[in-house]
What we know:
With 214 residues, this protein is mainly α. The protein is 90% helix and 0% strand.
Amino acid sequence: xxxxxxxxxxxxxxVMLFASILAVAVFxxxxxxxxxxxxxxxxxxxxxxxxxxxxxDHKGTEKLLHDQKEETAYTRFTQFSLERExxxxxxxxxxxxxxxxxxRLHLEERLPILNTLGNNTPFIGLLGTVLGVIxxxxxxxxxxxxxxxxxxxxxxxxxxxxxxxxxxAIPVVMANNYFSRKIKVITGNLxxxxxxxxxxxxxxxxxxxxxxxx
Length: 214
């Protein structure tokens, strides 16, 4: 039993180390993706795009899109909307909704890993503590009063597992909440763009066509 507890305790710390490395890797990868959509250039693109849409300036919109150095959710959405608008303006609104959903899924990719780690590492740490306490009481029963020092060291090590679990979970939960808030901002901006496209380019084009036909 003692050997099993020792192996279990060591395994818990290995899992904690792996979880922390995985969390850092996912955080850095997602941060790179999100930063592209939150730069001053990305915000500036939105600020310049909306007036162009309201003035129904197709050429200006295409030039603005062409001048962007870095691809973002906003540039991909604008490119997609312009191409679909030329092909089939009637079904564009539904297609833009689908594109927003696709961009959201792209932003949410790998975030379930952070969510899982944030929810479960405290419990894994607690399991390590329970194993450590079992080991401590087993030592107390075997060594008696003379083993008090050994027992206290075992309990101290056991509590480290819970501390490690919380040390991983707290930053991971904060990171997950940060990304979740940014997803709402980015998808909200995409929905605003969608409405601007529909109200200005598509509606304008369809009304112009019906006027010409009349």
